[in-house]
Amino acid sequence: MKTMKYISAIIGIALVLGACTERIDIELDSTYERLIVESQITTDTGIQYVRLTKSSDYYTGKDPDPVSNASVKLSDGFNTWTLPENSNKPGYYETNEDFYGETGITYSLDIELEETIGEHKSYSASSKIMNIGTIDSIRVEYNPDWEIYEVQIFALESPTNDFYMFEVLKNGELLTDSINKVWISDDRYFNGNYTMGALVGILDPENPRENPEPGDIITLKMSSITKDYYNFIIQLQDQTFQYRNPLFSGPPANVSTNIENAHGFFATYSTTYSSTIYQ
Prior knowledge:
The chain has 279 residues and is mostly beta strands. The protein contains two helices and 15 strands.
């Protein structure tokens, strides 16, 4: 793809510049452990989870250690659910299969650890599930200039200030299966207006997993997320983008979080779907 050619050119320039410098080995000191929280509570019905792990040194190259035997409670202000740990997946604390979040409700998360991590045992966070509109339809169209397939949306956007996350599925398989692949957007360019085919995702024809064939069902999942979660994703994508060039960028800062004394994010959002059969 043309985009990959541009990226390759940038990397090539960086390699040339790098060849003219002296190699410096930097010893990175270890730091104290922190709790990492990964959680999404959505309006979809099904098992939802809170994952707890420990932070580790940058170059360890191994999966983070799970945090077990914690007390994890979820509340909507009226009801409180104690999430049991999955015996087959250490560190995962899950709801029942029939659980779903409700729009307009602020959910609270309270975590009490069995042992301290980074001098802390208690953690808490809260987040509201924002309202979401409906999608009239989506379209998958080839763009010959960029040599990609565009996933386009047709919908009336609400007049409020909103933030969105877009994910794409092909025949039921989630293609945007990592935080770096999801698309996010605010509504500054179409607030309160009808979106006539706005670009919200792409499919790479050079990737067999993504390349659409006639008869494939392409589904767009649209989520209404909080501004804090929107900023979290932006920062996380910026720090983990594989083509980030340290020659032209400053040192990374800690990614923002809504959980005091921990890393990660307690995210809550509403979702809606629309599908089309690629012809």
